[in-house]
Automatic annotation (TrEMBL):
Keywords: Amino-acid biosynthesis, Diaminopimelate biosynthesis, Lysine biosynthesis, Methionine biosynthesis, NADP, Oxidoreductase, Threonine biosynthesis
Role this protein plays: Catalyzes the NADPH-dependent formation of L-aspartate-semialdehyde (L-ASA) by the reductive dephosphorylation of L-aspartyl-4-phosphate.
Gene Ontology molecular function: aspartate-semialdehyde dehydrogenase activity; NAD binding; NADP binding; protein dimerization activity
Cross-referenced InterPro entries: Asp_semialdehyde_DH, Asp_semialdehyde_DH_beta, NAD(P)-bd_dom_sf, Semialdehyde_DH_NAD-bd, Semialdhyde_DH_dimer_dom
Subunit structure: Homodimer.
Catalytic activity reported: L-aspartate 4-semialdehyde + phosphate + NADP(+) = 4-phospho-L-aspartate + NADPH + H(+)
Pathway linked to the protein: Amino-acid biosynthesis; L-lysine biosynthesis via DAP pathway; (S)-tetrahydrodipicolinate from L-aspartate: step 2/4; Amino-acid biosynthesis; L-threonine biosynthesis; L-threonine from L-aspartate: step 2/5; Amino-acid biosynthesis; L-methionine biosynthesis via de novo pathway; L-homoserine from L-aspartate: step 2/3
Source species of the chain: Aequorivita lipolytica
UniProt domain Semialdehyde dehydrogenase NAD-binding: residue ranges: 2-117
Classification via CDD domains: ASADH_C_bac_euk_like, VcASADH2_like_N
The protein's name: Aspartate-semialdehyde dehydrogenase
Amino acid sequence: MKLALVGATGMVGEVMLRVLSERNFLIDELLLVASERSVGKEISFKGKNYKVIGLKEAVAAKPNIAIFSAGGSTSLEWAPKFAEVGTTVIDNSSAWRMEADKKLIVPEINANLLTKDDKIIANPNCSTIQLVMALAPLHKKYKMKRVVVSTYQSVSGTGIKAVQQMENEMAGIKGEMAYPYPIHKNALPHCDTFEENGYTKEEMKLAREPQKILDDRTFSITATAVRIPTAGGHSESVNVQFENDFDLGDVRRILHETPGITVQDNPDTNTYPMPIYAHDKDEVFVGRIRRDETQPNTLNMWIVSDNLRKGAATNAIQIAEYLVNNNLV
């Protein structure tokens, strides 16, 4: 197994290396790849130092799998070049997600769709992944009609520049701004750029990606995405209207029995998901499960996950594991 990690020096790249180590992903040859300005840097993995190489050298090496976390423009240019030499690309950017001929994969939900012919596979948006992890089993049982989601997203979702902005503001230091306003002691209803319809790109990803993952356009999703001053972990307030009625005990049981989900739902003991507890974990945590008393067949939930792990690195590596375990690379 020759594995290339493109974007190895970035925030998600660092987490990917940690997850690869934790999960003991079998690698015979590891290629750490980044932009030209990072070429030659050394990164340690499992006690061994690796020199960062450029994209041309990585393509020439013809890796079995290349996991990309280097931004959409890099993916658009370079993923096809890797695919041409037989490499299977797992891309963490938004570049390929909504392309009709590219599969958008959350392994617990739809990895069975993958074949040897899939040379560019899209990793969904971080907020989408945790949302569909909770929605998929409930949709199967009760059939969703409409979902209203409001997100509370960590600055780590923007990247290292945003984390630095928050840390600078907390320390009273003037520095480079990732956002148009301060984030410390603030909440910005502005994740990604605005589109013509008044929604941000992040909000439209949440509206469109779940339909593709679940291969079902009979339900609709509307979203408001908000950036909050937490260092890691995304949270979501979710209101789901189903076609069929449900029993709250059955809802909790279904979620509890779903691989990758941990139910934390006991108001008597103040037990509910929080980003501080999701940090460095791969599970999607679900709590505050209750009936919406204003309309029939409608459920409220609170969903939390570490956006750099299950929302990015872990999901991509789970895709790679599925490919290897099913002889698809």
